[in-house]
């Protein structure tokens, strides 16, 4: 085995070169089984049977070892987080016991990488079998924990386990949520945080910015709690800006109004007024005059888009 360099920043090692060892062991098992069926085996029967038993032990031990390695490589960075250790103390303790045994065995392999000697250690198969059982329990506990978090905030179902763990492993740092916001809230790209880690604004993918009516405090709260607050403030803030858009529609020139409001606010607020104005035009039998008014509004927008406006304003008008 090649265990010359530590694995990442774990200060321990992983098995490298195992594929070649597995291929060689499988080849030896086939050859040994052929010898066991040979009519000329009798003088060497004991040696052949002993070697066959040893090869099967090595094969089973290596399979169990590599299974532990895969689970350990996945779980190690997770339980390296103090936050996860605090939230999953039982599973964390089990993992640390396996981790201790892993480091102990790999330290020996680092000093002597001979595969035959490493896999022939008495009791090693039992050690890895027990380790796999413990790691399965740890994995189930971790899955149940993630399911609990998703139950508390259903939008976490949009995230993969790895993405959710990335957030939960650093609960004291709300900024770790930023890269995943667009998956949790489809049209939200990021949040504005103060130095005290209070969320005050939300930003769309098109760079529109909307202020929260009530800033969201993140300190002292679990991530699913303050994310629920963000969801509530998202709805409240959108209701507020639409309300403002409806109220200011009649106070500003329409060409100025479309420039100072987000695109969806312009669309929804103008539809409210359009519906009221159409009803009024039908009631007063003045549809022709209202048609001319709408045509004039469209021409005003055509002239507006030809002026020096920002890309975002152009999108909103479109």
Unreliable segments (pLDDT under 50, ≥5 consecutive)?
A: none
Instruction: Report strand %.
Output: 5-15%
Strand tally is 3
Order of helices and strands: HHHHHHHHEEEHHHHH
Structural class, from secondary structure content? mainly alpha
Overall mean pLDDT stands at: 92
- Biggest β-sheet: strands ordered side by side in the sheet: 1-2-3
Q: Characterize the largest beta sheet: strand count, sense, and whether it forms a barrel.
A: 3 strands, antiparallel
Count of alpha and pi helical runs: 13
Secondary structure: helix percent: 55-70%
Shape: elongated
Q: N-to-C terminal Cα separation, in Å?
A: 64 Å
Radius of gyration over C-alpha positions, nearest whole angstrom: 33 Å
């Amino acid at each position: 085995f090649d265990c010359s360099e530590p694995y990442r920043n774990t200060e321990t090692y992983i098995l490298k070169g195992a594929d070649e060892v597995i291929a060689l062991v499988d080849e030896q098992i086939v050859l040994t089984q052929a010898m066991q069926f040979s009519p000329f085996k009798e003088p060497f029967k004991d040696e052949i049977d002993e070697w066959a038993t040893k090869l099967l032990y090595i094969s089973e031990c290596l399979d169990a070892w590599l299974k532990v390695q895969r689970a350990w490589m996945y779980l190690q960075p997770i339980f390296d987080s103090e936050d996860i250790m605090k939230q999953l103390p039982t599973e964390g303790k089990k993992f640390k016991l396996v981790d201790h045994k892993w480091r102990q065995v790999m330290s020996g392999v680092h000093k002597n990488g001979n595969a035959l000697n490493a896999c022939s250690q008495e009791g090693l198969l039992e050690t890895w079998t027990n380790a796999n059982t413990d790691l399965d329990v740890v994995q189930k506990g971790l899955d149940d924990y993630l399911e609990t978090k998703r139950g508390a905030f259903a939008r976490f179902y949009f995230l993969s386990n790895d993405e959710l763990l990335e957030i939960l492993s650093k609960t004291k740092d709300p900024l770790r949520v930023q890269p995943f916001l667009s998956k949790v809230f489809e049209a939200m790209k990021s949040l504005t945080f103060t130095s005290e880690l209070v969320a005050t604004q939300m930003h769309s993918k098109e760079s529109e910015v909307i202020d929260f009516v009530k800033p969201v405090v993140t300190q002292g709260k679990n991530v699913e709690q303050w994310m629920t607050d963000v969801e509530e403030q998202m709805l409240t803030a959108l209701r507020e800006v639409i309300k403002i858009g409806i109220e200011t529609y009649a106070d500003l020139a329409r060409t100025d109004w479309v420039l100072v409001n987000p695109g969806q606010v312009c669309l929804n607020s103008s539809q409210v007024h359009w519906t009221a104005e159409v009803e009024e035009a039908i009631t007063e039998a003045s549809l022709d005059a209202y048609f001319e008014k709408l045509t004039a509004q469209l021409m005003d927008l055509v002239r507006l888009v030809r002026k020096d406006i920002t890309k975002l304003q152009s999108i909103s008008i479109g």
